Structure formats: C-alpha cells, structure tokens
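Protein folds are increasingly written down as discrete tokens. With that in mind, we are printing a sequence and the tokens encoding its fold.
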Amino acid sequence: MLDDFMTRATLAGIGVALAAAPLGCFVVWRRMAYFGDATAHAAMLGVALALALEISIFAGAIAVALVMATTVTILSGRGYAMDTLLGVLAHASLAFGMVAVSFLSGVRIDLMAYLFGDILAVSRNDLLIIWGGAAVVVALIGWRWSSLLTSTLNEELAYASGLNPRREQLILTLCLAITVAVAIKVVGVLLIAALLIIPAAASRSLARTPESMAVFAAGIGAISAVAGLRAAYVFDTPAGPSIVCVAAFLFAALALVNVGRRAIR
C-alpha cells in the first residue's frame, strides 16, 4: 500500500494534521500566530545547516526551531517586545538560511520544496518521522493538557494551583518545534503556520469545549489534507498550497454558517 505515492502523501498530510490540531488550538487561544510563523521561518536555517553538515533535515530543523523559540521565550519581557523579537529572529533566520543554502556547493536543492512543501515526494522514512513526531506532540499535549489549559486561561490561577506557566510555555515551544520540523516536507516553512492556525480557528464555531475544539481541528486538518491532495491531482496545482486553500475554504464556510446562525437568533 505504501508503494503508492498518493497513499504516502495522504498519510503524511493526516499525520501533520493530527500533530498540528491540538497545538494549533493553544496557538489560537494564546494568540501566538506570529510565534508559530517565526518558528517555521527559523527552520529554514536548520535545513541549510543540516545539508551543510550532512545530517537529517528533521534534526537540523527541530534544533534551530527549538533554539529560536526558546530564545524568544527567555528574552521576552526583558527589554524587548515580543513582536519585535519575533520579527527580528524570524526574518533574520530565513534570510541567513537562504544565504547559507546558496553557499552549498555540489548539493542540488529545490528551494520551492522547502518553502512550499513537496508532499508528493514523501518516502517511507519521512512517514516514520512525521507520525513519530505527531505521536510525541499528541502525547506531550495530552499529558500536560490540564496544566497547559490552566496556564493559558489565567497565569495567576496557574500559580495558585502550583503550576509554572513558563514551564508549560516551554512544553508548547518544544511541541511547536517538532511540528514545524515534521511539517516542512508537507507544506513547507511558509505555510506551516497556516496549517496550525486555520483548522483550529475554523473549529471554534463547532466546539463547545476545549477538548472538542482540538478534535474538530484534527478533523478539519485531515479533511483539508485529503481534499487538497485530490484537488492538486485533478487541477494540477501545488499540493501544499492546495491543502491550505481547502482549509481556508472550510474556515470561510463555517464562519458564514456561524454568522447566519447568529442572524437567525
């Protein structure tokens, strides 16, 4: 079954959707959209370093994404505004990554594949990495769900409950770095944030509890992956952007339904 490239692509898309769904909910709740985007941009430097050192792309991307996200978490509130730090580190990392790639001699690099994804070229090893990363992210968030939710709702309540909001932030940072690393092959560094945010935002109008929002986000993400791949096959369009377009269409449709429902009431 895995010999078929469309089957591998579909499984890869669903795996990334499962990892991004619960994490995307926290990104939306904490208003960390720019944080996710910046972490994804930083991963491009990790790709360049991995190619230069001849190590796994996944290892390079997760290392740099984790360093960038941790640096922002530590420096925020110490004389620098969060959006300023994110802007500097995100664009600097992307620029340094692109420049570093240009210095690599004897290595053929498809920059478009790293920027916008190349899900149709996913191999069996890539599938293992994607689903392994997704399992780690889901396990971490499931383990810390109550603590993460309490820290997200109210930091003072978290302190009163004996929790450390900064530790929970670091756990989210780790999950974000892993998700970015496994999603590069699917949607590329420029569209990872979209796959994090759009399904979670779309699920808001359907959910009644935080847990149901994560489940609906996973469903919307998986549907977007499958339908986007089908649309790319039928209309001969780029697969990664097609997946994001389907997610955006679902978001718009659910938003219109929600507006209509409120108008009727």
Notes: Residues 5-190 form a domain with the ABC transporter involved in vitamin B12 uptake, BtuC fold (CATH 1.10.3470.10). DSSP finds twelve helices and no strands in the chain.
